[in-house]
Recover the amino acids of this structure.
């Protein structure tokens, strides 16, 4: 049986009418990792829009959020800032499953869509990935472990700037650095922030590919000490604040907002504000999101 295969990461990111012409149902069965700019949820949103236009039923086979379904963190995407790395006005760490997001997208984007979410059996929001009994299968080539998924909401923010986030090494998103960083100075300053749930140590690494391939990078290796206390988005923002404070214009942060998606927060980092000064800039919107998110949650804590 000759079944055509179409890529939504090539010439088009949206299913075309021609792709959908002979279908009655479109099924989404892809593992997300709970971060706004991880683009599988954008692909789902685009596919939902295409299914609505074509009059197709859209079925989501729900999967666990590997970084948990309780904690919600970070700035919301600015109005009008939607893109492939920011499909909807979510915080960076949304704390939802793909099925729950599909329900939210249909409602808030007013899609006339026959949506069916097939829920999981036995999953609770507070579960660790290991408690699910599921084997970890890399959802993308550089997302290689549960710790990497946890650090991604914060460390991933840095990869639009001149920072290696460990791509081209054995531990993407668990290390970061650049040739111009003084790793011991950065480690000392970050330790003074007393961030819960994370430990780090100075490290030197050489990426085999991607940014700084073949160059010696100085930075930090991260490890999780307590998943419940870890705030990866705060960690990422604290690192960005220190990169600007300690290394000035050596850190080229002009593209930092591409994934951050919040102009006020990006400007505050550029202006040298502390995390304590920056957090109030997004807290009201974050609390509003938490309230409206409750309407779409399918699983107990």
């Amino acid at each position: 049986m000759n079944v055509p295969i179409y890529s939504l990461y090539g010439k088009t990111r949206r299913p075309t009418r021609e792709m959908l012409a002979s279908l009655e149902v479109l099924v989404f069965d892809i593992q997300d990792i709970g971060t706004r700019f991880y683009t599988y949820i954008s692909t789902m949103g685009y596919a939902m829009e295409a299914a609505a236009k074509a009059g197709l039923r859209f079925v989501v086979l729900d999967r666990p959020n590997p970084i948990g379904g309780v904690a919600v963190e970070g700035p919301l995407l600015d109005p009008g800032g939607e893109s492939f790395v920011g499909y909807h006005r979510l915080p960076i760490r949304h704390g939802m499953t793909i099925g729950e997001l599909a329900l939210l997208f249909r409602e808030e984007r007013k899609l006339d869509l026959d949506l069916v979410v097939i829920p999981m059996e036995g999953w609770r929001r507070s579960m660790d990935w290991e408690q699910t009994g599921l084997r970890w299968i890399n959802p993308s080539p550089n997302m290689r472990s549960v710790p990497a998924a946890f650090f991604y909401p914060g460390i991933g923010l840095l990869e639009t700037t001149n920072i290696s986030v460990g791509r081209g090494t054995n531990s993407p998103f668990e290390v970061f650095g650049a040739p111009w960083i003084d790793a011991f100075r950065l480690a000392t300053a970050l330790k003074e922030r007393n961030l819960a749930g994370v430990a780090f140590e100075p490290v030197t690494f050489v990426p085999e590919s991607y940014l700084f391939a073949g160059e010696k990078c100085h930075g930090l290796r991260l490890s999780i000490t307590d998943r419940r206390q870890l705030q990866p988005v705060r960690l990422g923002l604290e690192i960005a604040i220190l990169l600007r404070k300690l290394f000035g214009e050596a850190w080229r942060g002009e593209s930092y907002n591409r994934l951050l998606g919040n102009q006020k927060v990006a400007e505050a980092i550029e202006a040298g504000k502390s995390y304590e000064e920056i957090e109030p800039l997004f807290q009201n919107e974050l609390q509003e999101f938490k309230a409206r998110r409750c309407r779409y949650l399918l699983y107990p804590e």
The chain has ten helices and eight strands.
